[in-house]
Amino acid sequence: MVRLCHQLALECEELPRPFHRQVLVLGGRRVSLPYEFLVPCLCIEASYPHHDSPRSKRCPFRDQPAAYGPELWSSVRFHDYSASGKDQMAMVLSASCPLRPRATLCWKEAVAEAAPCHDVPNSTASEEEQAYTLDKVDVHPQLCFRFSYGNSSHVECPHRPETAWNVSVSTRGLQLRLRLTSSVPAAFSAALCQRRGGQCEPEAPLYTVTQPEGSAPGELALLLPVQVLGS
């Protein structure tokens, strides 16, 4: 008898339906076993059909780069618990393989799935039992987690469209006009930056506008002079 399974810490767990079958293989015959995702913990287990027979197991994909690609992340389910009211980004992972990826924040240029996501410095999330959290963060649909494991990474954004603040940019002569909306008292800062490689490095000065405590929610405007072409 042969079957596919997912190797966990102490046991090889049966694949979910409809990939959970065991097949009797007669001597000299070949058999094909379907699976949903190619992942590093996918193993092949063989045993004789009689009761309590020894089992032989091989896990051929642990060292295969293909097992650490897009299919690995497709096999993971992401449960979003981020909440603007708690000032916290939070995501829980459910995976068929025992993964402990590293999680940091990045900012997506647009909501589109293929949009680039730029890393946020010093933003490593804490992890406990596959729950990743980062406190004192304003939740925003374009502020996302980047999960990294081995040489592979995946970007997962908050699943709720709610946000405590938003910004849009327009040009006025040699000025950039930032239109900020906020439902909570807050201070906003902005600076011009110069693109160098894949990053945009901020340049002095820093411009700030504040919506004080006790004021009604509304719009704020921030003007930035465009001092250098290409900023």
From TrEMBL:
Keyword list, A-Z: Receptor, Signal
Pfam families per UniProt: IL17_R_N
A GO molecular-function annotation: interleukin-17 receptor activity
InterPro entries xrefs: IL-17_rcpt-like, IL-17_rcpt_C/E_N
Interleukin-17 receptor C/E N-terminal domain sequence ranges: 24-220
Xref: PANTHER family: INTERLEUKIN-17 RECEPTOR, INTERLEUKIN-17 RECEPTOR E
Protein name stated in the entry: Interleukin-17 receptor E
Annotated organism of origin: Aptenodytes patagonicus (King penguin)
